[in-house]
């Protein structure tokens, strides 16, 4: 029977429109229905896939369209893990990740080999490959953890880093086992594998960032930029397969390569996460669910025995590894359980290894039946492992992650890690609006998504076009922020001059940070410098940031940060330093600080609490600081801590800094930061800036701000 153009009565459904509609209905309804009964929607998508798949109601076939979108979702999960990882924390915690790797690879491997060789009586080679199935992870719960806002948590950082290494090791074991069945494991095999993996790693980690930085500089179209990101994911995946490793490793490396070029607080990051979480990742979960066949577990007792060994080796081994990691690094119980939850899921690498082993025929029986490297019982047992491990991963990750997120919110509510922050962006020049908003997204605290103002001051003496210009600029500002899920409040003010209008808004809205952009291609003109000192800097209760954008802020690889002597004694120094820390955290750019010995010691204490990628350089005079700023490359920027006349850190040479910048840094991004000096009651600094113990306490507070 045919209804209009849709064939009805034959299963599985073949009409592409109806198929896609059914899949979208599943993706839409699973979270809405299951969230009410506190069941992770990830599990709902898996079960839905099993129900509508070929082993269930047979409504949908697991055809090429499902496989393609599902594969994209898997690659997307690994890409997001590499993209969102905090590289500063990753470097700081690399030994923790390696220790976790040792635990989570060795324990399940030993359990799996013991069970395979002694209980199931597999051969040594089959037992080795069988054991490697349980050492890999699939970060199926990562989107859930990221949605909870705890992706920067130490336990998540450790797990993501460990996942990359364990998956590589597991797939390396697979490659060796396959080579041994084919008699190819010799010196040439190891040489070829080593060189191919080295070439792949160098290409993705070093060549990809160069290509991406060039592309983002030359192409402004947001759609083209997103398509470029997808191209990089798939290109890295293909290169990984050419190198003899799985595509998921390539996607993870692509995330690491673009980590510094897609700021965590940016519109591009929001687009990448949105499309992945809305479409690709749910399709992957549905496609995995379609593999589940509940009937196979009742056909053979041997299948149940194999599945039982697999469950104990995989889930039991991951639990022991998580507990040992928790005890070793003195993590909280919830953090230990989150490690277990995220690492317990077995899907991608496990399924890939099982299918490869199942398709390898090592011999034949006397009756002519094929003897496979991994038997059908292992294949069926892996389906049960995928179902149960993903279920455990979803529930444990959700429950422990929610408790960690709740603890963070309690800290925020109690005032431990929340700073009263109100940012005002002056948007009088259309070409600078988007650049200023992008800077504010990096400067702001992570929790601040609704206390930003965009201001356009209109002079009463000008004609109506100024009002139209104000509306246009404010619209650009709101659209740019909205793309990153941040709300900017628009303000149009009629006043005699811009400085007066800004000053009045600062008082009305209790502004803490003022961001002003320089006109394109003009730099620090004499008229702007005059207005700066006689207008903007009269607002002594705010941090004033003067920004010049020579290129997109996401393409800046390194900042040279110049801090004058005695800057740490200023009332607003730590508040301003926090803005620099935010830029480093959100963009991944390296910060090279140039300051005297005393300031460097303070920076060491702060970075011990909140890791960023930095280098510290001791200077004895300002000429050394200027020398460091004269050799900037085209992908580097400059940040200078300034001082108003009369402040402790002010010195006469500051008057010549505008000329120096116009002469040497005109083509680069630079940011001048004037810390506040007139403290309001809310900003009052209760600590003595002369006490090193107090400096350590401030470092701890900054550390808590970024621990979320």
From TrEMBL:
- Xref: Gene3D superfamilies: 1.20.1530.20
Keyword tRNA processing in annotation: no
Membrane topology type: Multi-pass membrane protein
GO cellular component terms, alphabetically, are: membrane
**The keyword Transmembrane helix is annotated on this UniProt entry:** yes
Q: What is its main location?
A: membrane
* Listed SUPFAM superfamilies: Adenine nucleotide alpha hydrolases-like
Q: From the Swiss-Prot or TrEMBL record, state where the protein is found.
A: Membrane
One family from Pfam that matches here is Na_H_Exchanger
Which keywords accompany this UniProt record?
Antiport, Ion transport, Membrane, Transmembrane, Transmembrane helix, Transport
| Gene Ontology molecular function terms on file | antiporter activity
Q: Which residues cross the membrane?
A: 42-60, 66-85, 97-118, 124-145, 157-181, 193-216, 274-298, 304-325, 337-358
Domain Cation/H+ exchanger transmembrane positions: 25-392
The protein's name: Cation:proton antiporter
Species whose genome carries this gene: Dyadobacter flavalbus
